[in-house]
Amino acid sequence: MKRNILAFLLIGFLSPLIFAQDIDRAKLDNYFNALEENNKFMGSVAVSQNGDIIYTNSVGYADFENKVKANEETKYRIGSISKTFTAVLVLKAVEENKLELDQTIEKFFPTIKNAKKITIENLLRHRSGIHNFTNDEDYLTWNTQAKTEKEMVEIIIDAGSDFEPSTKAEYSNSNYVLLTYILEKTYNASFAELLTKYITKPIGLTNTYFGSKIDSKKNEAKSYRYLGDWKVEPETDTSIPLGAGGIVSTPSDLVTFSDALFSGKLLKAESLEQMKTVKDQFGLGLFTIPFSDKTGYGHTGGIDGFASIFTHFSDGNISYAMTTNGANSNTNDISIAVLSAAYNIPFTTPDFKSYEVTAEELEQYVGTYSSTQIPLQITVTKENNSLFAQATGQSPFPLEATEKDTFKFDLAGVVMEFNPAENTMILKQAGGVYAFTKD
User: What's the pTM?
Assistant: First the structure.
């Protein structure tokens, strides 16, 4: 549920776009085959034009342990894309005169700090000041355990407020958890029921619903982290994220939802314009996503080992969605490749060259490295024939040899260049270059 926008922001091209009716399916298929063969990506994508799906692809496993391959019907947790669905439900309630955007929340949560100042629109735009509970260090110690409404509200109350309402915007999953409860109290119905009644049933989404415990027998994907092989991730209980991150869907359903939303099939034109009106980076359950000289509207999502994105571009009437249950590369590059194909822009299939290093050679890199430039220690370990790095307070990640003494971790854009003779290492990431010395 943590918003990782850097992983999904689309890099612009300077050349003008010429939209092509015929997407290069063969080239995209080759692209995804290369990702799959090199353990770079497990997941699905879909693209639609003018409301018709023009490309889909699924690679990797929905259930790696049992070698169950993913397909177009495989369902993934979509994390914070759920917020767009929740925002639509709130605006439906506004259209039905059951809620008002400028009403404050003390009627629903009188004990929340600043409840008499915080409006429903503040929650939608992340301008409430309510602390984001998923940022807390202890969150991952309890996120797999079911929580009641009372328990969740107490967690949010105890976390307090980070700023005065309306003074600025800061992303907070707490906002959309509270909006879920407001919807349920307003309609006297569960969030799952409201999702079905107002969104999935009217527009025919057959693979979108509020999630529960992942069931592989229902073609629901587990999520994974690549550590020399795909390792299953712990599973957040959906009673915690609710409408902030608990929905399950497919890319095909997401582009259908996108097309319905932006063509006015779900909300009145005025409500849609309110969603698209961005202030301090946030609309109502939407934000802008750039590609080339285009600006789309959509949302990203991340929960456990899942990541996702959906976006709609009015220019060419294109909707795009990606879901992944395991990534060992920069998924932003995947989005760029698919949208490039949709807009007839050249793109290349990556050449995943590998450099063979023996287990004995890997031993020379093992150790703990420190830097005077940044307050970070990186511990390098060896497991079988693989090298792993772990920064202070973070999870370990696998290193892939690209040439002599040089390793990379594509998912984070990390390159590590070792000099075993001098016991040093250079870390490169996001344009930064940092010198480390082995302790």
Answer: 0.88
Residue 90 has pLDDT above 70, yes or no: yes
Cα–Cα nearest to 193, from 87, 249, 201: 201
Average pLDDT over residues 82-104: 98
pLDDT tens-digit map of 142-186: 999 999 999 999 999 999 999 999 999 999 999 999 999 999 999
pLDDT in tens, 20-48: 458 999 999 999 999 999 999 999 999 99
Residue carrying structure tokens 């073609």:
219
First to last CA, the chain: 36
Question: Which tokens hold the place of 38?
Answer: 């090199």
Alpha carbon distance 234, 371 (integer Å): 32
| Helices 269-276 and 82-95, axial angle in degrees (round to 10) | 140
Residue 295 CB partners (closer than 8 Å, separation 6+): 288, 289, 313
Degrees (nearest 5) of the Cα angle 248, 343, 269? 60
The 10 Å Cβ neighbour count of residue 49 is: 19
Q: How far is residue 48's CA from residue 44's CA, in Å, rounded to a whole number?
A: 14
Closest CA to 306 of 223, 244, 229: 223
Closest CA to 133 of 79, 173, 82, 76: 173
Backbone phi, psi, residue 383, to 5°: -130, 115
Check if the beta carbon of residue 120 is closer than 8 Å to that of residue 101. yes
Give one DSSP letter per residue of 125-145, joined into a string: TT-S-B--GGGSTTGGGTTTS
Q: Is the pLDDT of residue 388 over 70?
A: yes
pLDDT of residue 395: 82
Q: Are 368 and 379 in contact (CB under 8 A)?
A: yes
Mutual angle of helices 82-95 and 251-262, in 10-degree steps: 30
**Residue 78's closest CA among 220, 265, 199?**
220
Which two structure tokens, joined as six digits, stand for 270?
């005025």
Name the 3-class secondary structure at 193. helix
| pLDDT bracket for residue 13 (50, 70, 90) | very low
